[in-house]
Description:
It is found in: Membrane. The chain has 14 helices and no strands. The chain is mostly helical.
Amino acid sequence: MDSYSKHSMELQNGGCDSVSPSKQAPVRRISSFAKCRLIRRLQMFYKTWPKRGDDFTIPQAVLSMDMWILFVSITCGVGATLTAIDNMGQIGESLGYSKVSINTCVSLISIWNFFGRVIAGFLSEILLRRFRFPRTLMLTIVLALACVGHLLIAFPAPGTLYIASIMVGLCFGAQWPLLFAIISELFGLKYYATLYNVGGIASPLGAYLLNVRVAGHLYDREALRQHMAVSLGVFGGTAAPPRSISGELKCMGHECFRLTFLIMTIVSFFASLVSCILVLRTRKFYSQDIYGKFNMRPIEVDDEQKGVPSATTEVLRASAPTP
Length: 323
């Protein structure tokens, strides 16, 4: 074997064949053996990588590109809708709605959150079974529809907050059954309980990033700006800045949440674009009968139908009293 062929084999084996315990220094020998062991483990890990729809292990699912795409889109989508839900009271107050109207908006969110879960689960199942309509595409549509609700809050008109509440509640509820159904279909059911909670991490993460770090910061900044304007006597001629019962500054007007929900619109649109990538990656998977493997069962012919008494029949005959 020439030197070129020998070098090629060493590269294919990760350099493991070149390690000779008798010719290497002790430190180098130990590091080389550890490197070889790591390379072989990685080779076995990726060699046994399952196909979509098979049972992924937890590390395989977490490291999967499909999971990361799905997680990013849900984090953005759920985080944006949670921002609207958690701030609905302050949104209505800043736009001059009465307490009764604000309570109505909160109730509409809860009601349509329920309907969103039911409609998304039921409709996606029918479309998938009859027309092979992928759930990932339906998730993309839901994320794009949420942009309309955010725009209605950013550019409000009389009564549009009710419509925005319906759309935000509907889109928030619809994302969850689609997320968990997609996880079960792409990564299998063997470790579904753990992967279910992995997907659920998107909710607190998105809420913290978008609700606390973005919406809270922008609201406080606008409230402080109004406070400084009032202190200088240039804000509407009022004598004192508005404050809440706890003494915190309150923000009034359309500008309080306009920039926030323009950002939420961009984030939701970005989530729908990311989800489109998952649609393209899984289009071949959803074009087939993904539930066919659950319907295929081996047909077992009863022994008695073939004229041979089964074991259960023999036991019953043996235990029967002799006449």
